[in-house]
Design a protein that fits this description.
heterodimer, A: alpha/beta, nine-stranded mixed sheet, two-stranded antiparallel sheet, 11 strands, B: 750 residues, 28 strands
Chain lengths: 240, 750
């Protein structure tokens, strides 16, 4: 498969995503400079974590105007798979590809630690290899991960099973104590109604290798590759 | 011929922190009076901070060579070979003075400065570590300083995408008016692709790139070379303001420039900005540089040559490109949205010549400016109070009555307590190399593309160094090496950051000289070269100096990353072994400070040969796969080390049942004394005998002291007449809560 990893000025998990797809999962990876406007032959796009444009103004607020975002939107509109991790998620929100906004963490501090998330919807292209209700241990590293949206949107997302990942205890209980940043409804990851754009705050690329002591994140990427493999068998699958 | 546009008065010379003799030397070098710009340039280059004028004669004694050394002191950072064509590039630096004046920006720009030192060498930074000293957290100002410094480090490092993976923090009111902020950065470079700060090749273009130059930080180096008084906080404008986003672009641009074979030399504009980068690069190559300030990108109009040459605006670099490659250099800088301009060229006459609007505004021999600064052999003698500090009558101190509550008090001492409140604000995982996260004896990073890993630690017990600067510094080296060894790594290189008071005082100079001797002896014994470092003098306010704080940063190599070891107990049923001998080493201990409010006595005894023997043995048994956990005994002694083995794991922790023999020691010395060369190991029960026997064969005292398991830490002491034998019996949860939450609680105090 050919995975595109977008590099914004200030992206800093771009190499990590590249490493996992290329060296751990053996895929072809193309690094996409944010000034590019044409995307060709990609099977999926990753918006990586980091501090695009230094997080100045508001996280993701400037990156959404990067030239590449037009092409990313086109790609998503035509059904291509897009995953935004951490800052990538924030950019997806600012770009309107996913609903809602990110507020400052409740503690007002940057938080870097392992958290547990529950797979609330195992029928998506990004969680297909998970069991429903499976608990994953994945690290977070952000200052603005406190997800918020209006009650109507939230209700619609819940009804639509768009809340894919929620912060929980190691046993899988979704409690206020297990919510690291004050996120509405313990939301850690959401998907668009069409099911091809996922945003998540935790970093699965940081826990996809045994050597780093945790491989829970791998299942997210394996799910994506599974869908792509099956889809590429059907000739009508969309390619950018 | 240059003409002074400004009369150089005596006041002006004093304001520039230059002595009469130093000024005379300047006139001698120039053969005339300097103008104001030149006076400013000399004042920063000849400041203590840039010239090492008080320390240089002593630093020369340190061992700096070895088979692995690729680059020793004198460049932007040191480099040590790790095989596979790679080397680690590392250095530690202080940002103490700015951090007191403005904690967030002071600490942030400290991180920025050391990062630039590393990537200037052609290395991609992969890890940061910090050593911090603050006053006790009872004071609002100290809490403010700590929160600000931690936020500043986080703000800069996180945005750069370089993980902050370790460090150490200690608290003592002596640091209330002079906090210590030392940052170590380590990067990886190809051994044959190391870049140096040299202006070789007459006619080659000199190119400025990065941020624009503003009026911030003018005289930062001079400020860092002076003591503080009550007015010091008014020096805020001398603190620079950091922009990590620009630095991230600078990093990527530099690495791209270097990958494209365009450069002859490169140096960052740190302290003394454009002045230091240009004259040092010229001096190293034996050349001159001509700069035309007209082309320097500036943030504000009306800046004088004096301001442009002395500004310490951050995120700026100077490179010497190969002739004809200017266009390509400019293209890459522009790709990364950086300001860039050709501002001069390399000349053959050895002069740093500065022009502005076609007029020469400064003209100084580059070598004189960079290397011919004054050297002082300052007088030194021990302070009168030294004997009072070391003399301690143990009979006047009653032995511990309630060991359990003493242990709980120690765990809640911020110096010993978990630092998770701090390191959870640092991104310590980005770049996906962190194998051992903060909270074990050393941080361990894998090296992608190899089977190797590197371990890093920073250590210094400044109280030991106060009580005996020579012993204290040897102890710091020993502890650093022990921390690496307990992580499975062989020590391969050292960087230091020497934080002291005013070197013009003989007692402070005495501390410094002895510390250097101690570092030299210990590093020579372990055959670990010192490849880079930094000296920070004048850590003194209103005449009160900090404890001598010779911070040691040590790097170790793990040939097979699988052999990486951590400090926490792994498995119920494992045998717990204590290696090394426990003596009556209460002097300078955290126990004496926390429980008896005394910072006195002689620091613990250290025999370098025994220590080295222990290191070799630990490494051997770890590599043979016999060890499940290894933890060095340091602050708080054996009882605290055992608690940390129980509670510091990423999981819920596990208990232990311990039985100790008093063997004629005081009970407090047995539990909380800080005897050196001791390590707590846990091993599979059926290999315990084997490991013990081999330890004795290697000449290392070793005993089985207990077993891992349960949800309590129980410590029984046999031979204690005053009690029934059971001294500590606490739930792991209680210990863990106490240890985990102490700092957050202290910070929350209104």
């Amino acid at each position: 498969m050919k995975i595109g990893v977008v590099v914004f000025p200030g992206s800093n998990c771009d190499h990590d995503c590249e490493h996992v797809f290329r060296n751990v999962l053996g895929q072809y990876v193309e690094m996409i400079w944010h000034k590019e406007t044409l995307l060709k032959g990609l099977d999926a796009i990753v918006l990586p974590g980091g501090f695009s444009y230094g997080d100045y103004l508001r996280t993701g607020a400037i990156a959404r105007f990067s030239p590449v975002m037009g092409a990313v939107k086109e790609f998503a509109k035509s059904g291509g798979m897009v995953i935004g991790i951490c800052n990538g998620f924030q950019i997806l929100l600012e770009a309107g590809l996913l609903p809602g906004v990110m507020l400052r963490n409740e503690s007002l501090n940057f938080i870097c630690k392992d958290v547990y998330v529950k797979v609330e919807n195992a029928a998506t292209a990004f969680t297909g290899s998970c069991e429903s209700g499976q608990v994953l241990k994945i690290p977070i590293a952000h200052a603005d991960g406190n997800y918020y949206t209006d009650p109507v949107t939230l209700a619609a997302m819940q009804a639509n099973a768009q809340v894919v990942l929620r912060y929980c205890t190691p046993e899988g209980k979704v409690t206020p104590e297990s919510n690291p940043n004050g996120s509405l409804d313990n939301i850690a990851g959401i998907i668009n109604p069409e099911g091809n754009v996922l945003g998540m705050m935790p970093h699965p690329e940081r826990c996809s290798e045994k050597m780093l002591g945790n491989e829970d994140g791998r299942v997210i990427f394996l799910s994506m590759l599974d869908v792509l493999k099956n889809a590429s068998l059907k000739s009508n699958f969309v390619k950018a | 011929m240059m003409r002074a546009s400004h009369t150089i008065t005596k006041d002006l010379i004093t304001q520039h922190n230059l002595t009469d003799d130093e000024y005379k030397k300047i006139v001698e070098i120039l053969g005339r009076e300097p103008n104001l710009t030149e006076l400013g340039m000399f004042s920063v280059m000849w400041s203590e901070h840039c010239s090492y004028k008080s320390s240089r004669v002593h630093l020369k004694k340190l061992p700096t060579t070895g088979p692995r050394v690729v680059q020793g002191p004198g460049e932007n950072a040191g480099a040590v070979d790790i095989g596979d064509g790679l080397c680690v590039v590392f250095k530690m630096e202080s940002h103490n003075h700015p951090s007191f004046i403005e904690p967030y920006q002071g600490a942030a720009t400290g991180v920025g400065g050391i990062l630039r030192d590393i990537f200037t060498m052609g290395a991609r930074p992969i890890a940061l570590l910090d050593s911090l000293r603050f006053g006790e957290l009872e004071t609002a100002k100290n809490r403010h300083l700590m929160k600000g410094v931690v936020a500043g480090i986080a703000g800069y490092g996180n945005c750069m995408g370089v993980p902050t993976v370790g460090g150490e923090i200690a608290f003592n009111d002596i640091y209330s008016l002079n906090p210590v902020v030392n940052v170590l950065c380590l990067g990886i470079a190809r051994k044959d692709k190391i870049f140096r700060g040299t202006a070789a090749g007459v006619g080659n273009p000199v190119i400025y790139f990065g941020s624009k130059t503003g009026r911030d930080g003018i005289h930062g180096a001079t400020m860092a070379s002076d003591s503080f008084d009550d007015e010091s906080e008014q020096k805020r404008p001398t603190v620079q303001v950091g922009d990590p986003f620009t630095e991230k672009l600078l990093l990527e641009a530099c690495l791209e420039l270097m990958a494209n074979d365009l450069l002859v030399g490169i140096q960052d504009m740190g302290a003394a900005g454009l002045t230091s980068s240009s004259c040092e690069m010229a001096s190293r190559a034996g050349n001159g540089i001509e700069l035309d300030l007209t082309f320097v990108p500036r943030r504000e109009s009306g800046m004088t040559p004096y301001e442009l040459m002395l500004s310490e605006s951050q995120e700026r670099m100077l490179m010497v490109a190969k002739a004809g490659k200017e266009g390509e250099c400019i293209r890459i800088c522009k790709k990364w949205d950086l300001d860039v301009a050709v501002v001069g060229c390399v000349t053959s006459d050895g002069m740093l010549r500065v022009k502005d609007q076609g007029k020469v505004v400064a003209e100084i021999p580059a070598k004189s400016l960079a290397d011919d600064g004054p050297r002082y052999e300052r007088p030194y003698s021990p302070p009168a109070y030294q004997d009072m500090l070391t003399g301690l009558n143990y009979d006047a101190i009653p032995d511990v009555k309630d060991a359990e509550s003493a242990l709980l008090s120690l765990l809640a001492s911020p110096t010993i307590a978990s630092k998770h409140w701090v390191y959870e604000q640092y991104d310590h995982m980005v770049r996906t190399n962190t194998m051992v996260r903060p909270g074990s004896d050393a941080a361990v990073m894998r090296i992608k593309g190899t089977n190797k890993a590197v371990a890093m630690t920073v250590d210094c017990n400044s109280r030991y160094c106060l009580l005996h600067p020579y012993e204290g510094t040897r102890l710091a080296v020993a502890e650093a090496a022990r921390n690496l060894v307990c992580s499975g790594a062989e020590p391969i290189g050292v960087t230091d950051c020497l934080n002291f008071g005013n070197p013009e005082r003989p007692d402070i100079m005495w501390q410094f000289v002895l510390a250097i001797e101690g570092m030299k002896d210990a590093c020579e014994h372990f055959s670990v070269p010192i490849v880079s470092g930094n000296v920070s003098f004048y850590n003194e306010t209103n005449g009160l100096s900090i404890y001598p704080t010779p911070m040691l940063g040590m790097v170790g190599l793990i040939e097979e990353a699988d052999c990486t070891m951590t400090q926490w107990f792994k498995q119920a049923g494992d045998a717990i072994l204590l290696l090394g001998k426990t003596r009556e080493d209460l002097g300078g201990s955290e126990y004496l400070k926390v429980i008896h409010h005394r910072e006195q006595g002689s620091p613990p005894l250290l025999d370098l040969e025994i220590e080295h023997r222990l290191h070799r043995f630990i490494l051997k048994v770890i590599h043979e796969g016999l060890v499940r956990s290894a933890h060095d005994c340091s602050d708080g002694g054996l009882a605290v080390a055992l608690t940390e083995c129980c509670v510091s794991s990423p999981g819920d922790g596990v208990g232990a049942m311990i039985r100790l023999a008093l063997d004629g020691l005081r009970c407090d010395a047995l539990l909380f004394g800080e005897s050196q060369s001791r390590v707590v190991l846990s091993v599979k029960a059926d290999t315990a005998e084997q490991v013990l026997n081999r330890a004795w064969d290697a000449g290392i005292p070793a005993t089985r002291i207990g077993t891992v398991g349960g949800d309590r830490l129980v410590i029984e002491v046999q031979g204690d007449e005053r009690s029934t034998g059971c001294i500590v019996d606490v739930e792991i949860r209680t210990l863990r809560d106490r240890w985990t939450n102490a700092i957050e609680k202290a910070l929350r105090t209104a």
